[in-house]
Amino acid sequence: MAKTSPVRQASRSLIWLGVLVVALAAALTSGVLWGSATVAPKLGLDLQGGTEVILTPVLEHGHSVTSDELNQAVSIIRQRVDASGVSEATVSTQGNTNIVVDVPGRLDDATKQRIEASSKMELRPVLIAESPATTSFQGSDGKSTPYPTPAPTLANTPTAKPTNPSDLSYVTPYLQAEFESFDCSSLKDATTNVAPSAQPLVTCDSTGTTKYLLGPVEVQGSDITNATAGMISSQQGVTTGQWGVNLTFNARGAKAFDAVSTRLNGYYVAAQSAGTQDPRSQFAFVLDGRVLEAPQMQGIITGNTSQISGNFTQASAQSLASQLKFGALPVSFKVQSSNTISATLGSTQLLSGMIAGAIGLLLVFIYTLFQYRTLGFVTILSLVIAAALTYAAIALLSWQIGYRLSLAGVAGLIVAIGFTADSFIVYFERIRDELREGRGLESAIEAGWKRAQRTIYAAKTTNLLAAVVLYVLAVGNVQGFAFTLGLTTIIDVIVVVMFTHPILRLLARVPFFAEGHTLSGLDPKALGAVYRGAAQFRPAASVGAGKIASSSREAAKRQTIAERKAAELAASGTRSNGKDD
């Protein structure tokens, strides 16, 4: 197979770069015309302002929130905000109790619901249920059937110390009267329905159609490490066509849930044997004092995974999974206030940042023209193309994933100017080194590129790893800096591979550069080349006889004993050969 010429390879690279630029421009244009995209990237909280939501804990009388609980709640709420696609949002504490959530721009309904649903998740056993249940835990028998749950008669229930959280001894006449008189519609007027974790709770489901009397908390929502929605499969691995929610617990939650499932499944088996139904086989997921679901325990669940099955649709299963995954706050919160806030830095600081970037870019232009003469224009064009690609990428990311450019992100772009110029400088200096060695320009470009590639890739890999680590470990504005730094690093490699190197390959065919014009920046004489072309070395310098003899004597002094004897034997052999002749 014939090898493709450098000119053809360069042309292909430039064509593909043009396709990339056109594709980005077309995507952004279509987003502006037919979508919600904007030509300018969205700005962060520090440059545009946004919405501030203050959350305050809801506590039982005499209780207080600890710093560990507050920090854990901050972490979970931050996950909720991030999961909604909002970037550059900040979540912090205020004093020793409140949590402040600052979201850039207008707060959309989905994000608002995630923040305001900042509730405490609890898993409680069901003591009494007023209406039929429609969900169940998937047990070993694979069954999932609705069943009625009539409330048991408690007139003769003895008042004694309960032996477990499902013990009906918890239901005193007073609590039974409270349950019977409880109106589910009253929950609409309450921010939360709070009961101490060690005491029963009277509440309803989120629709207000089923009333529950629940036992004490047995598993905390914070013990749920993951929750996903998916299709249920039979024991043979065949999809049943029904949606369910898969739960994963930590070690503490798995141990507690194992004990709960064993007890509740016992109630289920006993009721099945007697031909009756027992609501105590249900286990309720309680969020913000309301029951999300109360599935029936139709099997003993061991290990750290479980599945909730029932009359789910895809939307309801995904909604429940999201609530279970992000609803596990250690303390229940309510919204104290929600206000619009102005930009903390404003357009003046943004303008200052842009001016700083322009000055830095101008200085790079001046330096490259001074150092590399006409070749410096290649650097300028490369930086212009990199800037265009970066702008288009940030604008598209603002539209697609809600990315917002903060002042820290602008700083990352400014820093990237120097990092991008480094690639060109490394490449150009490698070419100059090859010219100093006597190569022609085309050969110097190919050899210099091979040497420069390793250095450029190593440097950019280091920059990218640093950006990724910083993005993962940091939060808020620092993530914005890391994001732009990583993005510009990738674009830098694209530009130097698909534009800078191909352009130099083409310029090598231009006489102005190929012949080493003084203003080209590639003049071998100006670079101090030792020789030029093949077999054109410097002439050997003449050395006098005295200096040769002195050098021989000096070399003889540095000989070892073995070397000296070998030399003497060689000399005597030469003399013997001379006599024989």
Structural class: alpha+beta
What gyration radius follows from the Cα positions, in whole Å? 38 Å
- What proportion of the residues form beta strands (DSSP E)? 15-25%
> Can you tell me the overall shape?
elongated
Helix share bin: 40-55%
User: How would you characterize the largest beta sheet?
Assistant: 6 strands, antiparallel
**In whole angstroms, how far apart are the ends?**
63 Å
- Count of distinct strands: 15
Stretches with pLDDT under 50, minimum 5 residues: 139-158, 531-543, 547-552
- Overall mean confidence score, pLDDT: 79
- The total count of helices amounts to 16
Itemize the secondary structure elements and their pairings.
Blueprint lengths: L5 H29 L10 H4 L1 E8 L9 H17 L6 E5 L3 E7 L4 H8 L4 E9 L5 E3 L35 H9 L19 E4 L6 E4 L4 E2 L3 E10 L5 E11 L1 H24 L8 E5 L2 E4 L2 E2 L7 E8 L1 H13 L6 E9 L4 H27 L3 H25 L6 H30 L4 H33 L3 H31 L3 H4 L9 H4 L17 H13 L3 H20 L1
Parallel strand pairs: 5-13
Antiparallel strand pairs: 1-3, 1-15, 2-3, 4-7, 4-8, 4-11, 5-14, 6-7, 9-10, 10-14, 11-12
Helix pairs in contact: 1-9, 1-12, 8-9, 8-10, 9-12, 10-11, 10-12, 11-12
Give the structure's gist in a few sentences.
With 581 residues, the chain is an alpha+beta fold. The radius of gyration is 38 Å and the shape is elongated.
